[in-house]
UniProtKB/TrEMBL annotation:
GO molecular function: hydrolase activity
Protein name in UniProt: Metallohydrolase
A Pfam short name: Lactamase_B_2
Catalytic reaction annotation: 3',5'-cyclic UMP + H2O = UMP + H(+); 3',5'-cyclic CMP + H2O = CMP + H(+)
UniProt KW keywords: Hydrolase
Keyword Hydrolase: yes
Role of this protein: Counteracts the endogenous Pycsar antiviral defense system. Phosphodiesterase that enables metal-dependent hydrolysis of host cyclic nucleotide Pycsar defense signals such as cCMP and cUMP.
Organism: Paenibacillus stellifer
Superkingdom to which the source organism belongs: Bacteria
Length: 268
């Protein structure tokens, strides 16, 4: 049994992704209300009691808003590194001791026949991470909320069959936008969010021929647009000599208000 997944919601209003593989189903983050997460799961014909646990990337509210409520409702274990646990405890409410699990950065855990591995990313949080998922020879990588793609991140996500990668903002839209300068500087910094251009630059260095699809995630509603993100990322790749045919590689969309269709990593 390979890996399948759906990005339930992606963006500054809330983030949650579901991964199935090796006989287990996991959620990454629960950044919307429990009610809304249930609605999004229902759109993909699944329920919370199918989940084997929730993996946390970091403590910002758009990633943990519904974490405690969902975990309590379905009696789910939560997995996070020690520093992230320290940062989320006051926000998520009481969690039964048997559902508190530590997955330190760089370590891995096996869920059935699916291996989950965390890796460090750069963001203004206690100890933010991305995740790799492995079943057999299949690999899915999820990396959002990162100010830049370091060499270690490139190594972590290279050779993924499918990649979920942040393309948060168009730089000029952000610079001309309504945010105060301090907020803009944070987003543009090395501990902020990845721009369309930076996502394209990273992909031009990462792609080896194995990666067939990249989902552009965590788009800003104020400073990006779905079509613009896709076009800008592709243009940035081509500017760096990375040309591809749609039959060989595709850029795919994610949404803040609805889930992506179920996708199978092994799908060509």
């Amino acid at each position: 049994m390979g890996i399948s997944f759906t990005v339930l919601s992606s963006g500054s209003t809330g983030n949650a992704t579901v991964i199935r593989g090796g006989g287990k189903t996991l959620m990454i983050d629960a950044g919307l209300s429990a009610k809304r997460i249930d609605e999004l799961m229902a759109m993909r014909e699944m329920k919370g009691d199918e989940l084997a646990g929730i993996l946390v990337t970091h403590e910002h509210s758009d990633h943990i808003k519904g974490l405690g409520a969902v975990a309590r409702k379905y009696n789910l274990p939560i997995y996070a590194n020690t520093n992230t646990w320290g940062a989320i405890e006051k926000s998520i409410g009481s969690i039964e001791e048997h559902n508190r699990h530590t997955l330190e950065t760089g370590e891995h855990l096996d869920f059935g026949d699916m291996r989950v591995e965390s890796f460090a990313i750069s963001h203004d949080a206690a100890e933010p991470v991305g995740y790799n998922f492995y079943v057999g020879k299949e690999k899915l990588s999820v990396a959002t909320d990162l100010g830049y793609v370091s060499e270690k991140v490139r190594m972590a996500i290279s050779d993924a069959d499918v990649l979920v990668l942040e393309a948060n903002h168009d730089i000029e839209m952000l610079r001309m936008g309504r945010y105060p300068w301090n907020t803009k500087r944070r987003i543009l910094g090395d501990m902020g969010h990845l721009s369309n251009d930076a996502a394209g630059a990273a992909l031009s260095e990462i792609l080896t021929g194995r990666t067939k699809r990249t989902y552009l995630a965590h788009l800003s509603r104020d400073h990006n647009m779905i079509d613009l993100a896709r076009m800008s990322v592709r243009a940035a790749m081509e500017d760096r000599g990375c040309f591809y045919k749609d039959s060989e590689f595709r850029l795919c969309d994610t949404y803040y208000d609805r889930p992506t269709p179920w996708d199978t990593v092994s799908e060509s």
